[in-house]
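so the lab meeting is tmrw and i was supposed to have these ready like two days ago... anyway. pasting both below. for each one the top line is the aa sequence and the line under it is the structure tokens. i havent really looked at them closely yet so no promises
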Amino acid sequence: MDYSRRLVDRQLDELLPLLPAVSIEGAKGVGKTVTATARASQVFSLDTPSTRAIVQDNPELVVSRVSDKATIFIDEWQRVPSTWDLVRRAVDQGAQPGQFILAGSAAPNPKAKPHSGAGRIVRLVMRPMSLPERDVETPSVSLRALLEGTVPEVGGSTSLTVTNYAEEVLSSGFPGIRSALPAARPHILDSYVQHIVDHDIPESGQEVRRPASLLHWLTAYGAATASTASYSSLLTAATPGEDLKPSKVTAITYRDLLQRIWVLEPLPAWSPVLASLKYLGQAPKHHLVDPALAARLVGATQDSLVSGNGPKDHGEGVFLGALFESLAVQTIRCLAQANGAKVFHLRTQGGVHEIDAIVQRPDLRIVAFEIKLSSIVRPADVAHLNWLQTQVPDLVLDKVLLNTGSEAYRRQDGVAVVPLALLGQ
């Protein structure tokens, strides 16, 4: 089977000739195994019971096969946490560049505390497929060019509509789910969620005593996609009946565990250290690793999303708007990582000003993104972008409105209007 390159492959191309060990991390099903196996000389699949038993009995096996030209891939390393320390020591003892790739979809059991590997093992996050990786359109606007700060010309057109974006949300960015027949995808997503409750969290060291409580909390989180709703309000929303209400401590435990296994990936708030902005909120925006999970958890369908009859986003618009924002954030995160940048959001206290995504270069300069489920640009859609530029003109490299329109162009006020499908590397 032909391998389709992912955005993370460019980083692996750059890092493996330079570094002895790289760890690819992310939720189960994002494609870590396929990507790493394509580069490996030998694979130790620790999610396979027979291989895991062999390595548990003889952990040194994973480093004893190293040769000058070999790349050893240790898949689901957290199943045998000692393998991480073995690789770290091998690096300390002079392992050559490209000799180890590790992959993990969960943190190890808290009772097992491997060394952090800082300075020895470089970590890369792999997420579900971004829109450019799905090959639904040929991107014409480069995030790399936007980050250069030259205010590049933008152009290109797409035939994708709101309906197509709704289809992309429901189709999922998990390769195995996306490749399934549409009628099968909801059942696979249900199984994915159930596996989290029945296996992934227990394997991370936490007993799930009330599975229904966890599922209700996760559903409430999905309904709050792209919002900064407080965790206490999520707790309330997760309560169809008092007997199913998780305690606050339990809910915090759920949140932390779900983040550790990459099911939740909240977008942190931007805290500029070189700017005089005041009264910025610090709450993260809620995002599941894939908006398809959020849609499935709340029972959204293609018809309910497009018609606007699905659940509301805390009174701020139809649920598809929140899912479209989550799809855009997923894409921006993948593209930003490929360009060595980080992603945040901005919200002033009281929500007077909001910027959906802030992509920050290592030198702290930024490209600001507003995300709108609309093909028409209204003055209010760009008002926050222009406000931000007046506040921190030395930091803003470019301003972008991502929407569902058909044409990419630059407005007279400098805002680049870009259909989401046209944003690429």
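ok protien two:
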Amino acid sequence: MSHAELDLLSKQVSECRRCPRLVAWRERVAREKRAAFRDEEYWGRPVPAFGDPASSVVVVGLAPAAHGANRTGRMFTGDRSGDWLYRALHRAGFANQARSVDVDDGLALENVFVTAAVRCAPPENKPTPMERESCRPWLEAELDALSELRVIVVLGGFAYQQTLRILASRGHPIPRPKPRFGHGAEVEICDGLTLICSYHPSQQNTFTGRLTEEMFDQIWHRARQLAAA
């Protein structure tokens, strides 16, 4: 994918209004704001992907957080899940810094592309099946355009299921029976393309110890190994 292609796709994503419930919710959140961010101007639109357009590793999350990416306009930026993700990417050599605060914080990614199955912040982090499918073409377009793609890291079961649907529709052989989602599970899709499962770095997982930084680091170490193979 060229920078021009990425810029065009990002523009198209940010203008999407396909899902009335999500449009209403993201814009309501942007108007009402959280008290801690009351002086900030929220993005309040669909959030485009972020990263290196020549990546061999792609990260697929669930959706923007209401007061994270829906506020900042950049995937996994401005919330604790993003703090976890970009710290881990920095430790693994995929990011130039561990800091992820806003679009002007200087963060740059190398050989990794960060996206999500749904581009608007959904109420209670729960997109409907219709919203999931309405958003599907954006992820499809990105996966199709990443010509160097070798590794897909899915964060959580929602991203796992949607990524498998897309790969199957593209004619990739999905193992049968379909492998169960689990942290560290790997699915070899075809020669040279592997899917790695990770628990999502949500507070529900990180605060409870279900996901530790050591566990998360193992995912990115493996992704780098596979990307270099």
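from a quick look at the 2nd one: Strands lie at 50-51, 57-61, 112-116, 151-155, 186-190, 193-198. Residues 62 and 117 are 5 Å apart (CA to CA). will dig more after coffe
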